[in-house]
Design a protein that fits this description.
By secondary structure, the protein is mainly alpha-helical. The protein has one domain. Helix content is about 65%, strand content about 5%. The strands form two sheets. The chain has a two-stranded antiparallel ribbon with strand order 1-2. Strands 3-4 form a two-stranded antiparallel sheet. Helix 7 runs parallel beside helix 9, helix 13 crosses helix 15 and helix 15 packs antiparallel against helix 16. The protein is globular and about 60 Å long.
Amino acid sequence: MSAPASASTPVGRPLPTGYRFAVPRALREAAPVLPLLLLICTLGLPMAPGAEESGGGTLADAVSAGVVVYCVLRVVRRRERPLTRTAALVLGLPVVGIAVAALGADSLPTALTGMGRYFQVFVLVPVAVVLLVRDRRDFRLVAWTLVGLAVWQGAVGVHQYLTGTGASYMGENIRAVGTFGPSDVMGMSTVVAYGLICAVALALGSDQARQRAVAVGCALLLVLPLALSFSRGAWIATAVACAAQVVLAGLRRAVRLFAAVAAVGVILVGGLGIGTALLQERLTSITQVTDAPDQSVTDRYTMWAAAVDMWHERPVTGVGLKNFPAHRDSHASLALSSGSDTAGAGADFRRQPLLSPHNMYLLILSEQGLLGLCAMAGSWAALLVCGLRRLRASRASRAARAGPYGVDCALVACGLLLWQLVDFAYADIGGPSTVLTALVFGLAAWWALAPTAQAASAAHLKEVPRP
C-alpha cells in the first residue's frame, strides 16, 4: 500500500490522481455572481480623461460584454431553459422599438452603435443578471458590493470638495465627481444614490442587528457626498425612492422615521445653521424654472421642447436611433447654448456639446416614437408592478413567520427601480456609470420575474413544520 502524497510536492513532479486545488467555500458559492462583482468594482477605478468619449467604449463596457458571454456559456453548459415566458416577454419588449428605430438611423454605423448601447443597457445585461443571481444570498452580495462602491466614490468626492480638487462649479473646483471626472458629473451621484438606497433597504428589511447597524452607518455616510455632488435630479430621485422604501417597509415605522428626519433637519439647518450657501442656492434653484432659471435649466427645457417637436414630426417611429444631435438645431430655439463648460478634477477646460435632451423618456420619444416609448416604458412598468406584488407576498410570508423573507431584497429592487424611473425625468443614459443602470434593471427583473425567488420561498414553506 503506497503512502499518501505529500502536500509539498516538488516542482515538476505530476500531481497525484484526484488532486484538487483548495478553493475557499465562500468563493465557490459566489462563483456565478463574481463577474457581476467585478463589473461593479471596475467603476471604482479612475477614468482616463476623455476615455468615455473616444468612441471605443470603456473598461466597464468590456467587462459587461464579458458578463454576457459568461452567462451564455453557463446557460449552454447547464442546458436549462433560461427564462420563463413572462420574463422573456417583459425583458424582450424593448427590442421591438429599438429595432424599428434603428431602421431610421442616418447610417449603418450609427444604427449599430445605438442598437448595441440600448441592447446592452436594457436587454442583455439585465438578462445576464437574472440568470446569474441564483438566490437571495447572491442578491444581497451584489447589493452590498454596490454599497461598498458608493462609499469609495463618496470618500473620493468628499476629499475633492474639502481640498478643492473636484469639478468646476460656480467658479470653484468643489463639485464632488469621484473618479468619473468632470465630463460625467452625474456618475458619482448615481453610484452614491444606488448605494444609499441599497443601504436603506438592507437596514429596513434585515433581521440581523449587525447588518442593520452597518447599513444605517453606510446610509448616513453617503448623505454627505450625495449633497456635495450638487445633482438636483439625484436628490429628488433619492428622496422619492427612500421615502417609498420606508412606507413599503411599514406605515408605523414610516411615521416614526419621517418625524425623526424632520426633527433632525430642523435642528441642523434651522438651529445650527448647517448647510453651505451653495447647497441652499442649489436647493432653491429646483423651484426656479420660470422666474429666474439658470442657463443649465434653460438649456434643459429648450432641449425638451426640441425633443417633443421631433416627435410631432414623426410620431410613430421617431427620427431614428442616435439622430437627436442631427435634428437638434433645426428644432431648438435660440435660447439653447452651444454647450456646457467642464473643468477641474484633473481635466482641462472644455466645451461639452449638448447631444441629448437629458430626459430618457423624451429621448426615446424623439428617437423611437410612440412605439419605442410604449415598449420601453411598458417593460419598466411591468417590472415595477411585478416587483411590488412580490414584495407584498414576501411581507405576508414574514407575518406568517415563514422565512427566508427577502424583504430587504424586495426593498433594494423596488427602490433602485423607482429611483431610476424618477431620475430618467432629469437624465438619460451615457457615461461609464451606464453599466450600473443595466445592473439595476437586472436586479429589479430578478426580484420581479425570476422563478428562483418564488421557488426558494415555496421550498422553505414546505419545510416549515405545521404547529
